[in-house]
Structures are given as C-alpha cells and as structure tokens.
Q: What sequence folds into this?
C-alpha cells in the first residue's frame, strides 16, 4: 500500500483571506519575519497495490476533476512513503 | 526568501468526515482502489531571509501554538525550495 498526496492551493493571483488572516495575526502573536502565508488543502490517499504510471494518471485526473477547482486552484500529486513518521 | 510548509492533519485516531466523504464518493465517480482518504490543511509561509535552525524552531512553535490544534491534529514542518514549480 502506498500513500499519494494531493496538495491543492489557491492560484497565486487569487486572494487568500484565510492565509492573510494568519499572516496578519503573526506579529501580534510575536512571530516576525514571515512576509506571506497561503492556506490550502492536503489530501492523503491510501492506494491499494503499487503506484505505477497508470494509477498516478488516474489520481491526477481525480484531483483535476474532483479535489481541485482548477479555475482558482493549482494542485500537485506526490507519492509518499507510507512508513514515513508523521510528527 | 524561502518557503516553509506546515502540513496539519487530523491524528489517525480522530474521525475525518471530510476525508470519508471524499473516499465514499470515489467509486461512484469511477475511481477504485483507494482505501482511505484523509483531508488536512497546508500552510505555505514565505520567510524573509535564510531559514536556519532558530527560524525553524520558531515556526515549529508557531505551528504548535497557532496553526494546529495538537489535541486532535499532528503537524509537520518542511523547508521547500521557492523556485519549485507549482503545477
């Protein structure tokens, strides 16, 4: 079993009020030196069986048609080790 | 300038209704072979200046106190190349 990660972020030219809210709050909270924050979504898909080119192509299609709104969002598809420690 | 990414995911033992909704919809949409979906948040922070140990420690603190609810969520902090192409 393998894990495929789909990250969905607003396109750079689209305003991101959630990210802006975080960024503006940081100095108040004592965190300086961060000039921009963007907030997006992360999907972790557990895939049965091996992840080959065909499976990745399907997941790409799935992300494009279903997980992301490609009018306003960009997405990336990455394969991740399942054994990876999540802290 | 460098980009630091904070991924925030619900802990494995916490129910994830958003992820479940996606996972259940997939077969209906013609995508089989995905046994689990978890949905979380991704924060991209643009950091002024170099990202050294001290900056990462600060961002870790920020993520722990502000971006994640560590009662129910895990988070990871990663440095990313700014030049990276976002597709």
A:
């Amino acid at each position: 079993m393998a894990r495929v990660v789909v990250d969905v972020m607003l396109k750079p030219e689209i305003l991101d009020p959630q990210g802006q809210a975080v960024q503006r709050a940081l100095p108040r909270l004592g965190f300086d030196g961060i000039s921009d924050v963007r907030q997006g979504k992360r999907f972790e898909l557990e895939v049965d069986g091996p992840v080959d080119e065909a499976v990745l192509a399907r997941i790409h299609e799935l992300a494009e048609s279903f997980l992301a709104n490609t009018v306003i969002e960009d997405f990336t598809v990455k394969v991740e080790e399942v054994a990876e420690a999540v802290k």
